[in-house]
Description:
By secondary structure, this protein is an alpha/beta fold. It contains eight helices and eleven strands.
Amino acid sequence: xxxxxxxxxxxxxxxxxFKGQRKKQFTDLNGRAVFLRSIEIFADREDVKQVLIAIxxxxxxxxxxxxxxxxxxxxxxxxxxxxxxxxxxNKMLAEVDDCEIDLIAxxxxxxxxxxxxxxxxxxxxxxxxxxxxxxxxxxxxxxxADENNIITKTVDRRQFWExxxxxxxxxxxxxxxxxxxxxxxxxxTDDAQLVEAQGVPVTIVPSDSGNIKITSATDLSIAxxxxxxxxxxxxxxxxxxxxxxxxxx
Length: 249
């Protein structure tokens, strides 16, 4: 079954934890801005029919000057985001045409290391169940602590997963979740949380720690290493050029 997917990339955050000269989404990662690397992963896919990115209003001039041409090449539309993440996603939903779209994927613009295989898997799971996300099972020992950082309990880590993106939903499921946003009295940290609150089961598609979200300068260095390692692995082994061809390489 062929799918038509809209991809939403919220990039309107203030990067308060990232101590760089630019916001993390606009910082250089191995020669290209972090957000642009995330866009490239999706824009080249045949099943992705629409890509939207939301940016901070104060960065629109920088965005237009440095990256408008790249976005035009990929057919990406940008809008100004809201004050908080769920406001931003809600604004982006208004730009999606459900008549042409089977699934809506929400992906952190600062998560540029997601792989094609991971995207394939989460798209397929969402098409089957209606709601799915990538997640990495926690492998370290998990401690629960009080307000004074005193350990109160060691938690069984086998039941805990770190949610990642893309988080992918059928349009009616995600829209209904956002329509009922005002009914929740808790802090919203991801889209799956809204969907879960409506009683809709969300399928976990196992991922790994390589699908890193950049929140600090250290994360940026890790992401750079991951991408370099993947590029090196894709390079042909052995000598290249006419001499190599003559030798049967």
